[in-house]
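Researcher: Sequence of ABC-type dipeptide transporter follows. Predict its structure.
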Amino acid sequence: MALLEVNNLEVRFGLRSGEVTALRDINFSLERGERLGVVGESGAGKSVLGFSILNLLSKPGYIAGGEILFEGQNLAAMSPKQLRSIRGNRISMIFQDPMMTLNPVLTIGQQMVECLLAHRKISRADARRIAVQKLKQVQIPSPETRIDQYPHELSGGMRQRIVIAIGLLMDPDIIIADEPTTALDVTIQAEIMDLMLDLCERNSVALMLITHDLGIVSQMTRQAMVMYAGRIIEQGPTKEIINDAQHPYTQGLMNALPQMALPGQRLNQIRGSMPPLQHIPTGCAFNPRCDYVMDACRHELPGFTRSGGCRVACHMVAQMKLEEEAAARALEVN
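Model: Prediction complete. C-alpha cells:
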C-alpha cells in the first residue's frame, strides 16, 4: 500500500455564475521517501492540488469526488478534528511566501514551540530544545539567538529555512512544498533546494514539489506530473519526461527553458495563455495553443495512452502509438 494514494480526485468552486471544476480525474500515488514533481503554468491547478490533500480549501472550493488515502485513511472524508492530528504532524506543507506563513508578532521560537506543544505532550523546555535542533538542521547560524527574533529581523533566505524547519518539526512522513523558492534569488534557491533534498534523503521523507520550473524538477525529483487546466496531461519518471517529452504542452515547457535558446536569441514561449476555469475549451484544453491540433482535439477529451514508462493524455500520441502498432503487425505478417 502506498503512503499516499489519490484516486479520481475532483475539486470544484461554486461561483455566482455557476460551479467550475478546478481539478478533475487526478490519480497518483506517493511512496515513503519518494520525490514527486508537479509542474505547470500558473492556473494549472498545482497549488489547489496541494491544498486539497490536506483539505485546506477555502470556500467556495470543495472536494466534489474521489479519495485521498493516507496510509489507507481517506483524508477527504475526515472531520476537522481528525485532520488536526495529521496536518503539520504527519503531513507538512511549505507555502510560497514565508512572510505570509510566519506570524509577524510572534518570535520564531514562540511559533515553533506552540506547534510542538499542540501535537506532543512535552515540556516547554523540551519543545524549545527540539526547535533549536531543527534550526541547526536547516543550517541557521546562531540558532540559540535566532529563535528569539521576529520574522522581519531575518533575510528572505533565512525565513524560508525557518519555514522548512517548522515543516520538519514533527518529523513528518510527507512534505508538500508549494513553490518554496519563488521569492528568492538564484543562489539562495539552489541552497534551499539542496537543503530540502538532503533532509528528505536523510529522514526518508516523501516530497511533493509544486513548481513551474522543469529545471528544478529534473534535479530534485524521480517522478513527475505535468498539469494543464486542472488535469494531469503527462505523468511518469522525471528523466523520461525531461529527455523525451511526449505531450506538446510538456515539449513547450521544455523549449521555454532559458538554456534551450542561443545567447542573444529570443526565448521560446508557448503562444497564448492558460484558459480561465469558466472557459476551458471543449475536448483537449490545450487545443487552442497546440501546433499539432487535430479535429478530435477540439471535440473529445483525450484519454491516457501508455508511452514508454509514461502516461500521456494526447490524441496525437494515441494516434502515433496506433500507427506504430499497425506497422509492427505489418512487419510480423511479412
